[in-house]
Specification:
heterotrimer; A mainly alpha (286); B mainly alpha (346); C alpha/beta (446); A: MetI-like fold; 2 domains; 78% helix; C: 446 residues; alpha/beta; D-Maltodextrin-Binding Protein, domain 2; four-stranded mixed β-sheet; 19 helices; 13 strands
């Protein structure tokens, strides 16, 4: 019994040591955000002498025109939120239609194309998509590049495959009798969907939201192509990278920028830890 | 509102919508400037949609089906399918990002494999992928064992290990660049940064990738391990099996499926490595190979990006991307066939 | 009734979807959300994000003078009412790629920077003719279109570099900087200072950074530039033309390799191998190294380090024979986009910068640059600008032929050779042969 207790203690200590190690980069970011650049050069691992410096650095970063934090934070938030809402509503709609007709050939064909496209990496389409968007812009006069509508449009296209795939499987499991009951009550098909089916999808919608949300929020390659690295609209990862990519590496400010870029997600994680982990694991297993 | 009035209203909408769309298209083809025509087109399309929805019709269900599918199919077609097909065509041409003057057949593919930097990136990425699969899965599995054993603070540990995976590779990469360049050189006084040595720089990327990804893989293993029925474990305990025997004879075989999932997840993730690569080293440092010098940490995705965006060689960049896709497609097909086989066995 | 409300609801979702993010039109704003955001953030962001539709937009490639340009633009707006929005791109950013994506996206700025022939090739025929501007007659440094013979590029400065020295240290060591005109003089000077390191408080003689990921522009462009045109007349393109054919003059490259080896040998090794620009600059600016391989662009950074010592620029004289000229040129030019609807407003702004006291004060005094304009009466104040001005005045300058090398060659080819040499992966002879093969390969693949 005692041996078992010892082993448990050892395990806990081991877990704590690993946790400290895994979290150490975050700790380094926090302590160095509270230092002047001279202090960082002297010792990047020492604890800061004056935590007030953190406020100074953070406000410096927020106020520098080369890293407009609030603007990029707002852009990231806007792009992520709108993409997620549309993506969820539209892919639920599409998945519902596809899943309710899964015995018919056309439905199967569309579904298979969506699923197969999950393999396509962004690199293959990143150059031609510029041509396509440019063409649409020239033809209709609607600017898709360097604009919110364009990047949101692209996220709908790219997020669709996986979202439909996950939702499709879930909708199949919803008994058809529920819909029939609504039908008999005189509900139209669109009414049935929005009143009966859509609310039932909540748990799996959560998975879709989390998977797509993290991807869109952290994505670098797609916005770097769609918005450009120094365009009017910058997402947070783009803003951080163009802030870092200058001649002079001001680590105090760079780390403060990194700190500010991490904070929103860390806070979200603390609030909705269970759902996020569950969502990401579900997404992987399906 | 009676049916007739409803019908005429929706028909009216359809007509107005069609007129608007035709007008917009005429403007488009005439090449007039101004964004109005695009919105005209959208407004017309919307009117038609509403009209169709309100039109009392026997085919109402089919119309709804079509309208429900439309948004996803349209965005998907425009942003994925059309560019994808164009991209494959472009890889056989001398496309320069603006125009195509001629088809060059397989020339781009031949040029590509003749370039040392691409071949190097290719081999580097393959080797890295293999090593990374091993390191991420071992780390993830060990963490999972730790987090499913009877220790205190399990939930906190799980959350802590999982955290790096939530932050984007670009931001984390810069933080690690700081750690490699400033922290390590201060802690080990007088040492040069790891990132200036070709082999150590690759090791650094491997390390950071494992650090970032192991927590995610761990959570999947945790889910797998928790699905092992507790009565089976109790039975083996009663039979006096040692923890190691239980692990190898019961746990691992029972979660074989989880291993497949994790291995393929890491495979694709390592192969697509880009963000960390870009922000930690961006390809540096140099490596001398025979009488050539190349960038030692330029993985495939970065090589594609630099060929297209940095050197402006669109056709070659596109060709490399097509090869990149083909490899990923083969990997996925393999995964599907393995899972299918497993299903049959079960 | 039920059906109707649902239809409206659905149409509402659809239209919300399709109109999402479609607020404004054209380049000025992108969406309603964007508007409200930029209002909220207008206090904290730069001028670029709050520019109005009538502003002329300049993409500047020198982030160091961002603040000064913005100040000048503000003054110009106060005087004339014309708003000028400055968008500065940093050194790590691929500027020509960025401009191309602006062009592709139909978001071309009214004025933009070009670095030389390679950049200009992208914009041939798309730039406005500036020949009728007042500034043209006042300078020899305007960028001319080879085919039409018309001036299309506005030179805002002359820049120069070589081996920049700390004059106080040289004086203490008893070295006259004007004697640093050949390999032997440098060798002797390095050896002497190296012997006095402790009493001079130095950690190394030279501050050089050769890491290829972030310093390729310093080695692959600037240092390599001396091989191409060091000691030559301004219009002498012998070695440049050879390089474009993938050839290298082995004898000249061999002498050059010796000199680079010498520089490396006396450099702070950690800075040499893993240092970034600020590491390199800090070492020298804090008085811990006597020489740095940078140019007059470090002037604006000197106050950050409270530099009190004198300094000047000497030629990177790698030859056995005397080399008395430094490499100086207009580093880049501003072109006016021909299809902009504000060409005349741009020309007026350029003339203002070139020919008025206020404009020149901004470029020369505030930004620490050297005026390419003959009539400019504003004398530079910063030490390296003064030093460089003497070379310009005496006509002891050679051209920046390196600026016309193929795009990306420094980052993807030449810079790697400098790094390998610095790390000791290759020796002097390999440096010469790999320089040869790297250039040949790169030129062939183009």
């Amino acid at each position: 019994m005692k041996a078992q207790k010892n082993r448990r203690l050892m395990g806990t200590i081991l877990g704590a040591v690993i946790a400290l190690f895994v979290l150490s980069p975050f700790i380094l970011v926090v302590i160095n955000t509270a230092k002047t650049s001279e202090d960082i050069v002297i010792s990047p691992i020492a604890l800061p002498e004056n935590w007030g410096q953190m406020i100074t650095n953070l406000s410096n970063v927020i106020n520098t025109s080369n890293f407009s934090y609030w603007t990029s934070f707002g852009s990231s938030l806007f792009i992520t939120a709108v993409s997620l809402i549309l993506l969820t509503v539209f892919s639920c709609m599409a998945a519902w239609v596809l899943s309710r007709h899964h015995r018919e050939k056309w439905s199967n064909a569309i579904f298979m194309i969506f699923v197969a496209a999950m393999v396509i990496p962004f690199q293959v389409v990143m150059l031609p998509i510029l041509t396509v968007f440019k063409g649409i812009g020239a033809f209709t006069g609607i600017k898709l590049l360097q604009s919110y509508k364009g990047i949101i449009f692209a996220y709908l296209g790219f997020g669709g495959s996986m979202s439909i795939f996950i939702l499709h499987g879930f909708i199949k499991g919803i008994p058809y009798e529920l819909e029939e009951a609504a039908w008999i009550d005189g509900c139209s098909p669109e009414g049935t969907f929005f009143r009966v089916i859509f609310p039932l999808l909540r748990p799996v919608q959560m998975t879709v939201l989390i998977l797509n949300g993290l991807w869109i929020w952290n994505d670098y390659l797609l916005p770097s192509i769609m918005l450009g690295l120094n365009g009017k609209i910058k997402t947070l990862p783009i803003a951080v990278s163009s802030f870092v990519g200058s001649y002079v590496k001001q680590w105090d400010l760079i780390l403060a920028a990194a700190f500010l870029a991490m904070i929103p997600i860390v806070l979200l994680f603390l609030l909705a830890q269970k759902q996020i982990i569950q969502g990401m694991v579900d997404g992987a297993i399906k | 509102m009676n049916t007739a009035a409803k019908k005429s209203l929706s028909l009216g909408m359809l007509v107005v919508g069609a007129v608007l769309m035709v007008a917009a298209l005429i403007l488009d083809f005439m090449g007039t400037k101004g964004a109005m025509r695009g919105y005209l087109l959208i407004a017309g399309a919307l009117l038609i949609i509403v009209g169709l929805l309100k039109l009392p019709n026997k085919k109402h269900t089919k119309i709804v089906n079509g309208l429900f599918l439309f948004p996803m199919v349209f965005t998907f077609g425009v942003t994925v399918m059309i560019p994808f097909i164009l991209g494959i065509i472009y890889s056989f041409t001398d496309w320069n990002g603006v125009s195509v003057t001629q088809f060059v057949g397989l020339e781009n593919y031949i040029t590509m494999f003749r370039q040392l930097d691409f071949v190097y990136s290719f081999i580097l990425t393959l080797l890295f992928t293999i090593v990374n699969i091993v390191s991420v899965n071992i780390a993830g599995f060990c963490l999972a064992l730790l987090c499913t054993s009877k220790i205190k603070g399990k939930n906190f540990f799980r959350a802590a290990y999982f955290l790096p995976n939530l932050i984007g590779g670009i931001v984390l990469g810069y933080v690690w660049q700081f750690i490699f360049n400033k922290v390590f050189t201060t802690v080990f006084v007088g040492s040069n940064s790891m990132l200036t040595d070709a082999n150590l720089a690759i090791l650094a990327i491997l390390f950071v990738n494992t650090w970032q990804y192991a927590g995610y893989i761990m959570m999947i293993y945790v889910t797998g391990l928790q699905s092992v029925p507790s009565d089976v474990l109790e039975a083996s305990n009663v039979d006096g099996a040692s923890p190691l025997t239980t692990l190898f004879k019961i746990k691992i075989p029972m979660i074989a499926n989880t291993f497949t999932v994790c291995i393929f997840l890491t495979l694709v993730n390592s192969f697509k490595l880009f963000d960390l690569n870009l922000s930690i080293t961006n390809g540096a440092p140099s490596r001398v190979l025979g009488d050539k010098i190349i960038q030692s940490t330029e993985f495939l995705a970065l090589n594609i990006y630099k060929t297209a965006i940095g050197k402006n060689d669109y056709a070659l960049g596109q060709t490399k991307a097509v090869v990149f896709f083909v490899i990923l497609a083969i990997v996925s097909l393999t995964q599907v066939s393995i899972s299918k086989k497993k299903e049959v066995e079960l | 009734m039920k059906k109707k409300s649902l239809a409206v609801l659905l149409a509402g979702t659809m239209s919300a979807a399709l109109f999402a993010g479609c607020g404004g039109s054209g380049a000025s704003t992108s969406s309603s959300a964007g508007n409200s955001k930029s209002e909220a953030a207008s206090e904290s962001t730069g001028t670029t994000t709050t520019a109005s539709k009538d502003a002329i937009r300049l993409v500047n490639g020198k982030i160091e003078i961002d603040e000064q340009l913005k100040a000048a633009a503000k003054k110009y707006q106060e005087e004339t009412g014309q708003e000028v929005s400055i968008e500065s791109l940093g050194g790590g950013v691929d500027i020509s790629g960025q401009l191309k994506s602006y062009y592709a996206a139909g978001n071309m700025p009214d004025m933009f920077v070009i670095g030389g022939d390679g950049d200009y090739a992208n914009w041939t025929g798309k730039c406005a003719d500036l020949s009728d501007c007042a500034f043209v007659k006042d300078t020899d440094f305007g960028y001319t279109d080879d085919e039409t013979g018309k001036v299309v590029g506005f030179p805002y400065a002359v820049e120069g570099y070589g081996i920049t020295y700390n004059a106080d240290i040289l004086e203490k060591a008893g070295i006259d900087p004007t004697t640093l005109v050949n390999y032997d003089a440098y060798k002797a000077a390095f050896e002497k200072i190296d012997g006095m390191k402790e009493e001079l408080g130095l950690s190394a003689v030279c501050s050089v950074a050769a890491e290829s990921g972030q310093m390729y522009w310093s080695t692959g462009n600037h240092l390599f530039g001396y091989y191409l045109s060091g000691g030559l007349e301004r219009d002498d393109n012998t070695y440049f033309d050879m390089a474009l054919e993938g050839k290298v003059d082995t004898d000249r490259m061999s002498q050059y390799a010796d000199f680079i080896g010498l520089l490396y040998q006396y450099s702070d090794q950690q800075t040499l191998i893993s240092g970034t620009y600020d590491d390199q600059l800090a070492l020298w600016a804090q008085g811990k190294a006597a020489f740095i391989t940078e140019g007059n662009w470090i002037d604006p950074s000197l106050p950050d380090y409270n530099v009190s010592f004198n300094c000047g620029i000497a030629p990177l004289a790698f030859t056995k024979e005397d080399m008395t000229s430094v490499l100086a040129d207009s580093p880049s030019w501003w072109c006016v986009y021909g299809e902009s609807d504000k060409v005349d407003a741009c020309k007026a702004f350029l003339d203002y910068l070139a020919t008025t006291e206020e404009g020149q004060t901004c470029l020369v005094k505030d930004a620490g640059m050297i005026s390419p304009y003959k009539s400019s009466t504003v004398e530079p104040e910063s030490p390296l600008a003064v030093s460089l001005k003497t070379y310009v005045n005496e006509g002891k300058t050679s051209s920046w032929a390196w600026a016309n090398m193929p795009e990306g060659i420094a980052q993807n080819a030449i810079g790697l050779v400098y790094e390998s040499y610095a790390k000791g992966d290759i020796d002097k002879d390999q440096f010469v042969t790999m320089m040869q093969s790297s250039i040949a390969d790169y030129v062939a693949n183009k």
